[in-house]
Each structure stands twice: as structure tokens, then as C-alpha cells.
Design goal:
heterodimer, A: 382 residues, B: 639 residues, Ribosomal Protein L30, Chain: A, Beta-lactamase, 25 helices, Peptidoglycan glycosyltransferase (chain B), hydrolase (chain B), cell membrane (chain B), PBP_dimer_sf (chain B), transmembrane helix (chain B)
């Protein structure tokens, strides 16, 4: 398949493959491996129904990553706006042709496959904004006129996703967008005003009942988990019990009582970190966090070593999304953030998120493959 | 349009900001790691405890209720298998279809079906729901046979209280019933509350079941079980289990065979019978008809059934031997004859009976209108002459009669362990003062009242048990005390040697001779009720206690035959007796409510009951001792 994407390529396929950042691939595989191992345990020692599928999905996504990495960065820049508008159109179409699933309308069915436009948008927004700031000078970034397009580009998908309703993804998309605007060089003054504005908007949303009841509940529960221990706070409490009882070195693989006895809710998706923490303890959990940290730091390094402003911003956007996933999810299962339904990347069970993440890294890898020969010749690496 | 701005400044900014971002992520991960440290290392112990609480549940194992057995070990209250059919909703997709299938074997009313469906919706789908209990073996085996075609159906065998003798022993053992809110609030410990909350757990509601409830309950066992988040049991930790201990066995003095015989004899009447061993005080028979079926109470009866029981004029819920109070009528003359001797009248004292006696401002009639002529003390008992006693009553102090009556067992309750005993009334001057405390004009004793009391009418009332005790004390001259519990677990109540009564035993001689004459001499009021066995002579006394006084106007209308009266206005029929005459062993009292006459209704029934007692002679057989039974295996181990 890789043979067909070579238009305008200056380098041969073999050379490009050799320029892939293989240590990053290995790190990503280790993280996904942790997911497989944990899902196998969550199913009481069975490849079904999660572990095997997770493994296959990772393998497929890895292929996608490599294929994307083979595409030169300038092609991604050409595709940036079209991809963004396609994602926005799909998102706008969800209310009309979407499939309702678990009380929320997030899916579109295409030829028997279901996909979530909101997931595609995470990547598309990164591409779109990177493309936009690629054409702006530093002094233009903070000018009000040039602020309007990015605000619309961020605001439209956030509003659409929020109405699905999917608060977690809306926050994630909004935060990613804001982070890119910040990275592009928005002045601190406007940035701070923006943060305050977002906060006021959030309070207003709460006051005027724009948030669904369960979303309000989740935020209130986050503020006081003991408010309703058998209701909304139950997830969090059980999750903390799982982690806490795991201790320093854990209860042992497949011996986590909280998970094996189903005290942990949604444990194969959003709360999977707690199974891992229960069975492998503090040592294991910190180990997993360090893997994530390594991925993020390598990612930032790759971004800063990229050839074009577009490539740098897009790569950083991918890493921002990834970091937000990790921080929000781990914070959420430990009571540091509200339970908003954000999965742990590459570990949580779920095909779409896996695909989005790996596609993001495909983009990042493309930036790395397309780097200058002397990528690390003193150009702002960390 | 191709824009490619070369602007080193924006790259500088990007580098700085990326550096900041990297720092923020690092900080974020440090915070997450710190939180992890707090949860997993600092608060570890607390969460381990919470995880344990999640994981392990203590499950109570309900103990078997102790048995109540008769004097020869026959169970009066035991436990039986309760065949139930449960339904586990999660085992089938078609709940309606499953219920249809089971309805072909057992009847499920619409009402019940609605209730089951409601439970299914409310409970976790793996918790079994009881569809029906107390199934017949026939139904149960049919369900088991068809089980492959009954999805979700779970046949189950539990334990429930069983009363093999049904209504025959209802008033002896009482019954158990479902635990109420007040039982729960009165529970002394959390342990007890947990036991009371066990499904199907029953507590003693009446009779000995109630009095000895704690002893019969036994000790609950327990087992730790590992459960998952939904409460489903994953594992039973058998090695940590504490086995339950069955409740104590309660061995009674009752003879179930004789009890059955007495119940049969009283069948159809509203009546009571008590048989006592006059030496030990053992109550052999405590019969009350009509009775209720304690098994029905255990299962639960409908409000309609309850109302029917409650409103019946035959009072099937009244424990008549202990809680029914009746004027003793002429059976009280046995007391009066002893009192007369204490007051100085010799057995040879004679009085003339013309059929009535003028006292105060009116005539007191003898039951025999034409009179008895000259009557001595023996004859007064044999013929039950009222005028003889009126004559004495004219100048005897009522307190002497009251004293004798008390000493012979009237006007008091006994420690039997069966709740609801009534005291009855033994009238005396002191009693009247207290009784009429609110009406001083009625407080003084009028001698005319003694004339009523001396023949067992007026204020005096007694229970059948008291009459049996009275007879036993007359037969032996000793203070026989009734008892019904012989052995409780490993504590035996030894029969206590009866103390002297505090009445000159010689005074009883003429009374006994009189009683012998009642049944064994032609002309005695109960000659028809004799037992034709020279070695086992039955000595008795009839009694007829007035319920309603036929008015002069009614008499004028020609209403003289009590059978013309409605049932509830007819006189009570009483009979007390003991046997054998020359070596007393058993005493018996029979009361037939509205039975018109002691001689015609109560006497024959008492005789038949005593015939059964004579045939079996329970006092001559060794009684069952649960302690010996319990010790047997231990002994064989030592040997």
C-alpha cells in the first residue's frame, strides 16, 4: 500500500522508513501492550472480549501510522483545510443522519462502519489551526482580526460536540484548540482574558441549564465525592479503593479483587488505569506514567525539530491532545478531575480513539520523516 | 495560494511556549504521581480495608428451631422440609413464558403474578424470587421432573416449623409467626437483628413457642462469602464457617396419645379437658376444642380466616383450660365440704332438704325441686344437694371457704410457661372490698352471697386447670403443683415432692367417699359415668354452672327445659374426677360450655378420657429424656 503514496517524494521509501523514529514506535507498542495485558485481566484472564481486539486494532493502527508517516508533510498541509471542513461537515450532519447510542448521538454509519466525526475533528482541528498559523507572522497572531478565524474554527466543533452531548470530547477539542493558539504565540493578555471568558461561559452554562443533569451531577460529585457514595460518587470511590488497596507493588496480575469482582465500573474503558494500578501497584502505575512521559517528551522534541511552522504546530497539537488525554484520565480516576468520559490513550478499550491517537502520531512521524537532515543542529530542541 | 512565512520571531515564541507546555505536562504528571503516592502508599491501609469490606460478606446460617416433644418423645413441634419453587430471572429471556409454563403445575393467581413481576423488575436479576412455598411433594416432584422445560425455575428445599398434631396440640405448643417490626426493635443485639432478618425466619407467637422462643431458637451459624459488586456469591469460605446450633429440645409432660383421645372426645363441643398426674403434677392432657391449626398460622392465614376464628362463638382461639373462666358450680361443693368441717361441721351433720330454703328475703332453690329429704355430708356430695350447703352457708364465714379454695388451687395461676392464664375469682371479704373499691355501699359482705358462693355460683369462677389441680389436691391431700415442661435442653425440672396443704388430711376422707359415691353408687349424680373396673375406681363430682337464670315470667310461659334455651344461654357442664380411688394417680377436669348438665355432658366425656388414661397408664412408663439421647453417642465413644 505504501507504494502508491509517493507523489513528489524526494526520498525513496526505504530511506524514509529508515528515518522513522523507531524508539517512539516501541514506546507506543509498550503502552498499547499494557492495555492488552490489562484488558486480558479485566476479562478474568481471557482474550475475549477485549484483549485480542485491542491487539488487532493496535496492529492495524500502527500500519496506518507508518503509512501516514510515509506521506510528506507538505501533502498534509495541502490536505489540512479540506480535512477540517470535511470533519466539520460530518459533525454538523450527525444530528440528521447520526446513530443514537447510549443516550448520545455521536456516530455516523458509512457502509456498515460507524465512525465518530468528533474523533476525526480532534485531528482535523489540529491540522486546520496549524495550517492557519503557518501563514501568520508573529505580530499578526494577537491582532483581533486574525483572532476571529481560529475562534470560529474552534468554537464551531466544540458547540456541535457539546450538543451531542459529549462534554468530555468538547472540552478536549476546545482545550487542544486553545493550546495551539497559545503555542502559535497569542499574547498573554488576550490568553488570560480568554481563560476568564471560558470560565464565565462555563458558569453561565451551568446556571442556565445548558449542561445535562448528569453532567452537573458529575461536576458536583467531583467537588464532593462522598455526596452520594452509591450513586454518582460510586465510580470514583471504587476506583480509589482499587488504586489505594493496590499499594506499592500491587495485588498481582489478575488478582485485583476490585476489578475481578466487578466493583470497578466501565473498567475496560475509562477506568482501566485503576485495574492496572490495583494489580501492579504504585511501581507499575508510575512505570506506565513514565512511558507516557517519554512519549510526550519525544513528541515535543520531534515537533520542535520539524522543518515548517505547520509541521511544528501540527505535531505539537497532536502531543497536546495526547497529553490532555493522559492527564485528564488519570486525574479523573483519582478524583483530581471530574468524571467526564476521557479514555486513557492506547490502553483503554475503544477502536475510534485508538485510531485517532495513532493517526495523530502518524502525522507527527511524517513531520519527523520530513525533517531536515540536520534536525537536531541546535534548533530549539528541548 | 502558497504562504510560507519565514519569521524567526514566531519560531522563538513557539520554542518558548513549547518549553512551557512541556513543563506544564511534567508538572501535571508530578501531581498525578503525587496523588498516586497518596492513594497507594499513604492511604493504602484504609483502602485495603474498604476493599475487604467490598469483597467479603458474612452470611448467616439459620439454626434449626428446637423440637417440642411429648413425654415419650413424640414431636409436637418439629421442622419439616419446605418445598419451594424459586425463579431466577436472569436464566431466561422470556419471563412471561417461564411463568406460563410453571402455572401449568402450580396455580398462580393474577394478583400473585403481578407481584412476582414487580419483584423481578425491582431486584437484581440473579436474586431468586419465591414463586410458591409449602408445595406438596406431588407438585414438587412434578416440577423437578419437568425442570428441563422450565427455564429459570429453581426448586429449593428449606426448613419450616411443623406441628404434626395440628390443632390437637395447638394450645400446648402455640405457634410461630413471621418477624414483625416490633420484634426487630426489641432485639437486644445486632446479631439477633440479623438473625431475625433472615428470609423465612419465624419467632414464637403463642404458647410455649413464645415463652421459650429464645431457647428454641438456637444459635446462628455463619459463613464468610466472597461477593462481587452485585452481591452475587463468588465463593463460600467453608473453612471459616461456624456451624449453627439447633435450639434446645423442650420435653413436655403431655402425652400426645391421650391428648388426641381427649380432643376426639371433646370434638364438636366448645370444651376443655385437663388430665394431671396427682403425684408429680405432670399435665398429661391439656385439651381445648375447637382449636386452630398452628400450621396454618405458620404459613399465614387470610384476614377472612382470622375473622372467622375470632368471631366464632365457640372461641377457637381461646385456650379454654387455662384462659376460660367458668363458675365451678357444684364441683365447688368439694371445697365447701372441707370448709364446713373446718368450721366445725362433722361428716355426720345432717340437713333437711325440702327443695328450697328461705334466707333473707327470698327462697334459695335446690337443683332438685322436690328435695332430697335428710342429707348428710357424703350424701350432699353424692346427690349434690344445694340446700345442705345453704344450711351451712347461713352461718359460715366466707373467708374460711376462700382460704380452702385458695389452698386447693383456685384463684391463682401456675408457672407453666404458657402465657394467658387467668386467675379466676375466689370471693372473700377482702376481695369484695377491693373489687367494689369505687362503690363503698357494695363493699360489705352479705351472708346471702355466701349461699351462692358455697354452691360454686355468684362471684366464684375458675379455670379447668384449677379444677384439675383442686381435684388432685383433694385426692392426695398434698399441694400438687402442675407442670408441663419436664426438660429444657439439658436442664430437667425434677418433680418436686408435693408439700402438705395445711389442711387436716382427715377432712378429705369424707369428700373422697362422697366422690366415690357420685360415680359408683346407684343414685349418685354421675353413676352413669362410672368405670366398671373394681381395681380402677373413678371418683368424681358433677357440676352445672348457671349461665342464665330462667325468669319467673319465662317459667310461667312453660320454659323449663334448658334445651329450649338458645345455646349461649344454656348452663355449662362440668365434671372433675380422679382415679384409682384407693391409690389416686390421675385427676381430670372437663368443662363443656353450654353443655346443660355435668352429669349428662361432662361426666361421660371425662370417663372416656380416663378410660384411655387407665389403658395407657403413662405414669408407669419411663418418660423420654432428650439428654440421655444426646449423650448416647458420647458414651459409646468413651466405651
Amino acid at each position: 500500500m505504501a507504494t502508491i503514496i509517493l507523489p513528489g517524494g524526494k526520498r525513496g521509501l526505504r530511506e524514509r522508513l529508515s528515518r522513522v523514529h523507531w524508539p517512539l514506535i516501541i514506546l507506543l507498542t509498550m503502552v498499547a501492550g499494557a492495555g492488552v495485558v490489562t484488558l486480558y485481566s479485566a476479562a478474568e484472564g481471557s482474550w475475549q472480549p477485549w484483549a485480542l481486539k485491542h491487539l488487532i486494532r493496535f496492529a492495524v493502527s500502527l500500519c496506518l501510522l507508518l503509512v501516514m508517516a510515509m506521506v510528506a508533510m507538505r501533502h498534509w498541509m495541502t490536505l489540512a483545510y479540506p480535512v477540517y471542513f470535511f470533519a466539520l461537515a460530518a459533525l454538523a450532519a450527525v444530528p440528521f443522519i447520526g446513530v443514537v447510542n447510549m443516550g448520545a448521538q455521536r456516530w455516523i454509519e458509512v457502509g456498515g462502519f460507524q465512525f465518530q466525526p468528533s474523533e476525526l475533528m480532534k485531528l482535523a482541528l489540529v491540522l486546520g489551526l496549524a495550517r492557519y498559523y503557518h501563514g501568520l507572522r508573529a505580530e499578526q497572531v494577537s491582532q483581533p482580526l486574525y483572532l476571529v478565524p481560529p475562534l470560529v474554527m474552534i468554537g464551531a466543533p466544540v458547540a456541535l460536540v457539546f450538543m451531542q452531548p459529549d462534554l468530555g470530547t468538547a472540552i478536549l477539542i476546545g482545550a487542544t484548540g486553545a493550546a495551539i493558539v497559545f503555542l502559535a504565540g497569542l499574547s498573554w493578555r488576550i490568553g488570560i482574558i480568554g481563560v476568564i471568558g471560558a470560565f464565565v461561559a462555563g458558569v453561565a452554562a451551568y446556571r442556565f441549564g445548558i449542561l445535562k443533569q448528569y453532567q452537573v451531577e458529575r461536576i458536583l460529585t467531583f467537588l464532593d465525592p462522598d455526596r452520594d457514595p452509591l450513586g454518582k460518587g460510586y465510580h470514583l470511590l471504587q476506583s480509589k479503593i482499587a488504586l489505594g488497596s493496590g499499594g506499592l507493588d500491587g495485588k498481582g496480575y489478575m488478582l485485583g479483587t476490585q476489578s475481578q469482582l466487578k466493583f470497578l465500573p466501565e473498567m475496560q474503558t475509562d477506568f482501566i488505569f485503576t485495574i492496572f494500578g490495583e494489580e501492579f501497584g504504585f511501581v507499575g502505575a508510575i512505570g506506565l506514567l513514565l512511558l507516557y512521559y517519554a512519549v510526550i517528551m519525544i513528541g515535543i522534541n520531534i515537533a520542535l525539530g520539524a522543518k515548517t511552522h505547520f509541521a511544528r504546530l501540527a505535531s505539537l497539537g497532536v502531543i497536546v491532545t495526547f497529553s490532555l488525554y493522559v492527564l485528564i484520565n488519570t486525574g479523573m480516576v483519582m478524583g483530581l478531575a471530574p468524571v467526564v468520559g476521557v479514555p486513557l490513550p492506547l490502553v483503554s478499550y475503544g477502536g475510534t480513539v485508538m485510531l485517532t491517537i495513532m493517526a495523530g502520531f502518524g502525522l507527527l512521524m511524517s513531520a519527523y520523516v520530513s525533517r531536515e537532515q540536520d534536525a537536531f543542529s541546535g534548533r530549539g530542541s528541548l | 495560494m502558497r504562504i510560507n512565512v519565514h519569521d524567526p520571531e514566531r519560531q522563538e515564541i513557539l520554542n518558548r511556549r513549547a518549553f512551557l507546555f512541556g513543563g506544564a505536562v511534567s508538572l501535571g504528571l508530578v501531581v498525578v504521581g503525587g496523588r498516586l503516592y497518596q492513594l497507594q502508599i499513604l492511604d493504602h491501609d484504609r483502602y485495603v480495608e474498604l476493599a475487604q469490606d467490598n469483597q467479603f460478606n458474612r452470611r448467616i446460617i439459620t439454626p434449626l428451631r428446637g423440637e417440642i416433644v411429648d413425654r415419650f418423645g413424640k414431636p409436637l413441634a418439629s421442622n419439616r422440609k419446605n418445598f419451594r419453587v424459586l425463579f431466577v430471572p436472569e436464566q431466561t429471556r422470556d419471563v412471561e413464558g417461564a411463568l406460563d409454563a410453571i402455572s401449568e403445575i402450580i396455580n398462580i393467581s393474577e394478583e400473585k403474578r403481578t407481584r412476582i413481576m414487580r419483584q423481578i423488575r425491582r431486584r437484581a436479576p440473579f436474586i431468586p424470587i419465591e414463586i410458591e412455598n409449602n408445595l406438596s411433594w406431588d407438585q414438587f416432584s412434578k416440577i423437578n421432573f419437568q425442570l428441563p422445560y422450565l427455564p429459570g425455575i429453581l426448586p429449593d428445599v428449606g426448613e419450616t416449623r411443623d406441628y404434626p398434631y395440628g390443632e390437637a396440640a395447638a394450645f400446648v405448643v402455640g405457634y410461630v409467626g413471621a418477624v414483625t417490626e416490633s420484634d426487630l426493635s426489641q432485639a437486644k443485639s445486632e446479631e439477633e437483628r440479623i438473625l431475625l432478618r433472615q428470609p423465612g425466619f419465624k419467632v414464637g407467637r403463642e404458647g410455649l413457642e413464645r415463652t421459650y422462643d429464645k431457647e428454641l431458637r438456637g444459635a446462628a451459624g455463619s459463613m464468610n462469602v466472597k461477593v462481587n459488586a452485585y452481591g452475587r456469591v463468588i465463593e463460600e469460605l467453608k473453612d471459616q464457617a461456624i456451624p449453627p446450633v439447633q435450639g434446645e429440645t423442650l420435653a413436655l409432660t403431655i402425652d400426645a396419645d391421650l391428648q388426641l383421645a381427649a380432643m376426639k372426645e371433646l370434638e364438636g363441643e366448645s370444651a376443655a379437658a385437663v388430665v394431671m398426674d396427682v403425684v408429680t403434677g405432670d399435665i398429661l392432657v391439656l385439651a381445648s376444642t375447637p382449636a386452630f391449626d398452628p400450621n396454618a398460622f405458620n404459613i399465614g392465614i387470610s384476614p377472612q380466616e382470622w375473622r372467622a376464628l375470632n368471631e366464632s362463638p365457640y372461641k377457637p382461639l381461646l385456650n379454654k383450660p387455662l384462659s376460660g373462666v367458668y363458675p365451678p358450680g357444684s364441683t365447688f361443693k368439694l371445697v365447701s365440704a372441707v370448709a364446713a368441717q373446718i368450721a366445725g361441721y362433722k361428716p355426720g351433720f345432717r340437713a333437711h332438704c325440702p327443695g328450697r330454703l328461705w334466707y333473707g328475703n327470698r327462697y334459695f332453690h335446690c337443683w332438685k325441686r322436690e328435695g332430697h329429704g335428710w342429707v348428710d355430708m357424703k350424701g350432699s356430695i353424692k346427690h349434690s344437694c344445694d340446700v345442705f350447703y345453704y344450711t351451712i352457708a347461713k352461718d359460715i364465714d366466707v373467708d374460711i371457704i376462700a382460704d380452702v379454695a385458695k389452698k386447693l388451687g383456685l384463684g391463682q395461676t401456675f408457672e407453666l410457661g404458657i402465657p394467658g392464664q387467668r386467675e379466676g375469682v375466689v370471693p372473700s371479704r377482702e376481695w369484695k372490698r377491693r373489687f367494689f373499691a369505687g362503690r363503698p355501699e357494695n363493699q360489705p359482705w352479705f351472708q346471702g352471697e355466701t349461699l351462692s358462693v358455697i354452691i360454686g355460683q355468684g362471684y366464684v369462677t375458675s379455670t379447668p386447670l384449677q379444677l384439675a389441680v383442686m381435684t388432685a389436691r383433694i385426692a392426695t391431700g398434698r399441694e400438687v403443683r402442675p407442670r408441663i415442661v419436664r426438660v429444657l435442653g439439658d436442664i430437667a425440672a425434677p418433680p418436686q415432692p408435693a408439700a402438705p396443704l395445711g389442711i387436716d388430711p382427715a377432712y378429705f376422707d369424707i369428700v373422697r367417699v362422697g366422690m366415690d359415691a357420685v360415680t359408683n353408687e346407684p343414685g349418685g349424680t354421675a353413676y352413669r359415668s362410672r368405670l366398671d373396673n373394681p381395681d380402677w375406681r373413678l371418683a368424681g363430682k358433677t357440676g352445672t354452672s348457671q349461665v342464665y337464670q330462667i325468669t319467673a315470667e319465662e317459667r310461667a310461659r312453660g320454659l323449663t327445659d334448658p334445651e329450649d334455651l338458645p345455646w349461649e344461654r344454656r348452663d355449662h357442664a362440668l365434671f372433675v374426677c380422679y382415679a384409682p380411688f384407693d391409690n389416686p394417680r390421675y385427676a381430670c377436669a372437663v368443662v363443656v360450655e353450654h353443655g346443660i348438665g355435668g352429669a349428662r355432658m361432662a361426666g361421660p366425656k371425662a370417663r372416656e378420657i380416663m378410660r384411655a388414661v387407665m389403658t395407657k397408664d403413662p405414669a408407669a412408663r419411663p418418660a423420654y429424656d432428650p439428654r440421655v439421647v444426646a449423650q448416647t453417642p458420647e458414651r459409646s465413644r468413651e466405651g
